[in-house]
Each structure stands twice: as structure tokens, then as C-alpha cells.
Amino acid sequence: MFLFAAGDNYAGAIVGFSILSADGRSVVKPSSASTSLYKPETGPAFNLFVGRRLSDYLSVEANYLWNSNELILTSATVASSGQAIYEERRSSSEQSVIGDLLLYFRDRPNWARPYLSVGTGVIRLSSKQREVTTLVGPATLPPQRFTATVPGLRVAVGIDLALHRDWAFRYSFSETMGPNPVSDRLSPPGERTLKNFQNLFGFVKRF
User: Fold this and answer.
1) For a Cys staple, 144 with which of 9, 129, 154, 158, CB 3.0–4.6 Å?
2) What is the pLDDT of residues 126-148, one digit of tens each?
3) Mind giving me the DSSP string for 49-69?
4) What is the chain's percent helix, strand, coil content, to nearest 5?
5) What is the spatial distance between Cα 172 and Cα 157, in angstroms, rounded to a whole number?
6) Distance of CA 142 to the CA centre of its chain
7) Pair 138, 174: CB distance under 8 Å
8) CB within 8 Å of 91: residues ≥ 6 apart
9) What are the chain's domains?
């Protein structure tokens, strides 16, 4: 970051890409068999943040994060009464507000400062249907649009590289975990948490 001038406050912006975890489930009964899954695509992401240095090794930070990912949802049920199958494409996005505590492994005079951070906050996921590509029988599709606000835990590793004066370059790799509103709407519902992996690059300014 910009850990090398007067002032303990800083702000920055980093951008990159987001990868969501997938999920699926199969349920087999004597009279029927059901399976469901969703497949996410890589999408854009950015992180705006402000922070304050508490010491040479500790900082606190407030983050606003956004990412967008395309999803393909599939469900199939086969029973003696018939089949129910669907596949649809959806656009989904997440907005998160997270408070982080950062632990640096080198003090301020160093030009390269790796760090580890952990924080928590809220995640708001919004999803809308783009296209139904397959529909067979009386399949129950998710709502065309749905939103959910859930708690999230975020952990990240990164490094701040000093540039000119109060500027620094930052790289961050983070994982944000929370309840899975997408899995909840599969048929049958999935069971895994939603994990959001982000690779981000950008700049920080100290003031």
C-alpha cells in the first residue's frame, strides 16, 4: 500500500475476476431419482476500501465488494409418473460490505509487505433468469428473480508493494464464504456453502 508516508489512513481500489464454487445433489428413492447442479462462470469483480493503520503490523479496513457471474442451473427428476427436466441460464451478482483486520508480516519501512486478513459482514446476492434452454414435463424452476441477504466470512492473503511517495500496488486473493441462496433454489436443494474466490489487483493511496 502506501505505507510509507505521513498519515495512518488509506483508501484504494482493486479489480479482477471472481470464481464461485459449484454445487449439486442427487436423491435416489425406490420410486424416483432426482439430481440437480449449478455451474458458475468466471466473472468480473472489484473491491473499494478505506482503512486505518493501528501499528506497523495491524490495520483495520472497511470493504465494499461487487462481482457478477453467469450460472447454468440444471435439474432432472425421473419417476414412474414421468420426467421433469429443466436447464436455465441466469445472471447473478453479489454486493458485500465486509470489515477486515489485516496482519502484516513486515513493518512499514519495507517496500514489500505481505499480509493476512480476516473479516465478516453481509452479502446480498441477486439473480435473474436469462434463458430457459430445456424444459420437459412439470419441472419447478427457480423464481425468475430472487435476492437474498446472508452473513459472510472473508479471508484473504495479499501483498502491498511501495511505489512513488504515498502510493502502493496491491494484489489480493480472497475467499468469502456464506449460506448458499442458489443451492437453496435447486430441485433437489444443494447442501454446500457458497464460496467466492477473487483475484484482484490495484492501487492504494495513503493520506
Assistant:
1) 129
2) 999 999 999 999 998 999 999 99
3) EEEEE-SSSEEEEEEEEEEEE
4) 0, 75, 25
5) 6
6) 21
7) no
8) 68, 70, 71, 127, 128, 130
9) 9-206 (2.40.160.20)
- Which distant-in-sequence residues (6+ apart) come within 8 Å of 196 by Cβ? 18, 19, 20, 21, 67, 94, 175, 176, 177
**CA-based diameter of the chain, in Å?**
74
Q: Which whole number is the average pLDDT over 174-192?
A: 96
pLDDT tens across 66-111, in order?
Answer: 999 999 999 999 998 899 999 999 999 999 999 999 999 999 889 9
Give the 3-state secondary structure of residue 150. strand
Q: Which three cell numbers stand for residue 16?
A: 479482477
Amino acid identity of residue 160, one-letter, is D
Beta-carbon contacts of 56 under 8 Å, excluding residues fewer than 6 positions away, are 104, 107, 108
- What are 190's three cell numbers? 444443494
User: pLDDT of 44-68, one tens digit each?
Assistant: 999 999 999 999 999 999 999 999 9
Distances in whole angstroms, Cα of residue 66 to Cα of each of 13, 45, 46, 87 = 12, 6, 6, 26
Q: Provide the pLDDT for residue 7.
A: 58
Q: Are 142 and 121 in contact (CB under 8 A)?
A: no
DSSP codes, 72-123:
EEEEEEEETTEEEEEEEEEEEEEEEEEEEEEEESS-TT-SEEEEEEEEEEEE
Contact 191, 21 (CB under 8 A): no
